[in-house]
Amino acid sequence: MLGIAASPGIAMGKLMIRSSEKIEISDEKIKNVDVSQEINKLEKALLKAETELKEVKKKTAEKFGKGEADIFAAHLSILNDPELKKSVEQKIEIEKMNAESAVAKAVDEYSQIFTNMEDEYMQARAVDIKDVGERVLKILLGKNNRLEKLTEEVILAAEDLTPSDTAQIDTDKVKAFLTRDGSRTSHTAIMARSLGIPAIVGLGANYQELSSGQKVIVDGDEGKVLIDPTQKILNNYQDKLQKQQVAEKKLEKYLNQKAQTATGEKVEVVGNIGNIADAKSVIKNGGEGIGLFRTEFLYMNRQSLPTEEEQYNVYKEVAELYMDKPVLVRTLDIGGDKDLPYLDLPVEMNPFLGYRAIRMTLDKKDIFKTQLRAILRASQYGNLKIMFPMISSLSELQAAKKILNEVRAELDKEKVSFAKNMKVGIMIEVPAAVVIADLLAEEVDFFSIGTNDLIQYTVAVDRTNEKISKMHTPYHPAVLRLIRQTIESGHRQGIWVGMCGEAAADELLLPFLLGAGLDEFSMSAFSILKVKELLTKWTRDEAVGVMHHVLRCKTIKEVKEYLQMVAK
Ligand code: PEP
Ligand code: MG
Fold first, then answer.
1. What pTM does this model have?
2. Domain 154-249's class?
3. What fold does the segment set 267-425+509-567 form as a domain?
4. What is the CATH code for 23-140?
5. Ligand with an atom nearest the CA of residue 292
6. Using CA atoms, how far apart are residues 218 and 223, in angstroms rounded to an integer?
7. 164 pLDDT band (50/70/90 cuts)?
């Protein structure tokens, strides 16, 4: 079965389908309820829920940091809320309900109280109460298939996984994942690459052939799923796996070597991250800095905005980890396929063209300022740089810089210290920004090309839609010209130009990017060593030759065939 290869590698194991069914509890009157038996069932379920929550809190703290684990501390206090428990017990004892119905009803009533409150923060607590209720109900009904609560190794399959679902995946247990929907540059796929697990997305109608318990091989390199493979196929894949491990071992020699071309010319190879765990993984994989910190992941999997202090602690930790090495912190990029349910943003016809990234933060100035304060305060502990996403006009950039300067002035007034000379750059991911790159370059210290969006907006192809995912390619001559143009405009104004879209790790495209003069390549941790190795095979002059040839190609096919022919 074929899908879209979203994250490379091979995994073998038992399939677990994550059902998207809703829990339904019937309202029917329950006869002959054995009160003591139901109370007993309830006590056991509460105890199990408590153990689960403590465990997931601990794991989240280890994986993503304390701030993100706080949500589970809040869940624990709801679980132990004596009033809520009393209400459930009364429903069993007085109204003669069974444990499930009593929990469902009490949670419903209790969360309603919070929903009706004026205060937004209190309203958001209703979501927490329902979440805890659902956890207890799933235990009572034996439907416990939460992502974080896996007891054995599995290949996970789901119709779709949101980026926040993916953030909860326990990579000790989930060896690979498959989804019916999605495409290579959806954020879920990007996260799979940073988790280092194979993934295939966009299986479409094929998805129906999967069922829990099947033995499968996931070939993330080819986008292939093999169901109940024969022993011969299994052996072939074991061999392939072994060869891959040997190849990976060979790359280790580049771990402590600075990225350079065949003639020793230095180029920066850095990592894309979404949290502290990724930041550590980039270091472990030989990254020389961070070219993109997708800070929006700090805002996900929680019920309210992270405070300035919570954000400051994360940015400070990353700054200290990297010391004098650069860390490009991108300001909040919400919208498109990344939602924050607690912000209650309007549903849009075209979310990728809508209220997204800098457009939203310029409008929600409080959210923006809180983040800028946190980044500026953390800037004194390392080499942080700030980067604004989705800039499409000069006035937008000027407005963002004005707010940044306001925050600087406020911190000065409060005598709070921060790095005064922190560099400021922008993502180039909207074609309009490429066209006016000369004007934008006068206002910033660097550009970073976001090809995931640049392709989407140039070719008018939704980056998350599996039906047209073949059209989402950096080999399109229009995209290649825009990349070249961006680098030239940046260099003409004396600023450096990097790339943090997925194309930066595209092995075939590497000589083109090097030849076009790209200064910095930023990618998920697991691609770093391979790109460092490939760079050593090219001289700048050879790469310039490739770049000129590529720019003369007229079609995607011609570009690809030529790049395949010259690949080293
Ligand atoms: C991009 O658009 O290429 C990019 C790096 O940003 P994101 O994938 O987070 O939209
Ligand atoms: Mg983008």
1. 0.77
2. alpha beta
3. TIM Barrel (3.20.20)
4. 1.10.274.10
5. 1
6. 8
7. low
